[in-house]
Amino acid sequence: SQMDVDSERIMEKLKDYDGFLPYHDKSAPEEIREEFGMSKNEFKRAIGRLCKNRKITISSDGIRLV
Q1: pTM above the 0.85 mark?
Q2: Which residue in 6, 14, 9 sits closest to 46, CA to CA?
């Protein structure tokens, strides 16, 4: 599914950046589009799923691999 693709893209980027990215649900839609190539809604759905599956944590400064 598209959400699987989006989640995988976020996981790959986190691995490339030592497990932390300064993006979260308050980030500007343009920043998310530029960094991940997806809409803010797609990003929020994907990080929500990753968080629920305990792959990442979401904090006020960004997202981290668990």
Answers
A1: yes
A2: 6
